[in-house]
Specification:
The protein is mostly helical and about 110 residues long. It has one domain (about 10-105). The chain has helices spanning about 1-5, 25-50, 50-105, and strands at about 15, 20. A hairpin with a 3-residue loop joins strand 1 and strand 2. The longest helix has about 55 residues, at about 50-105. It is elongated. The protein starts with a helix and ends with a helix. One of its GO terms (cellular component) is mitochondrial inner membrane. InterPro entries: Cox20. Belongs to the COX20 family. It is found in: Mitochondrion inner membrane.
C-alpha cells in the first residue's frame, strides 16, 4: 500500500539539496550547457598552456559563466513568452466581448 502511494509521485533530482532540476524551468538545460562550457573552456586552456591547476580554475569559471548565462537567457525568454501569451489572451477576451455585444444587437 505504501509503495503504491509513492509510485504516483515522481521524485525530482535535487542539485546540492536545494535546486530541483526536473521541476525548475531552465535548470536542466542550464546545467547541461554549463557542463559543455566547462569542458570546452578547460580543454582549450589546457591545450594552449598545459597548466593543470589553472585549467581546473578556468573550467570551473567556464561552468559558472555558461550555466548562469544560459539560465538568465532562458528565464528572460520564458518571461517574454508569458507576456506575449497574456497580451494574446487579453486580445482574444476583448474580441469575444466585442463579438458578443455586436451579435446581441444584431439579433434584436
Amino acid at each position: 500500500m505504501a509503495g503504491e502511494e509513492g509510485a504516483g509521485q515522481e521524485k525530482g533530482f535535487k542539485l546540492l539539496g536545494i535546486l530541483d532540476v526536473q521541476r525548475t524551468p531552465c535548470a536542466k538545460d542550464a546545467i547541461l550547457h554549463g557542463a559543455g562550457g566547462s569542458v570546452a573552456a578547460g580543454m582549450l586552456f589546457f591545450l594552449s598552456t598545459s597548466r593543470v591547476r589553472r585549467t581546473f580554475d578556468v573550467g570551473f569559471a567556464g561552468f559558472m559563466l555558461t550555466t548562469l548565462g544560459s539560465w538568465f537567457y532562458c528565464r528572460m525568454n520564458n518571461a517574454k513568452l508569458r507576456v506575449q501569451q497574456r497580451v494574446i489572451q487579453e486580445g482574444i477576451r476583448n474580441k469575444m466581448i466585442i463579438m458578443t455585444c455586436c451579435c446581441s444587437h444584431n439579433i434584436s
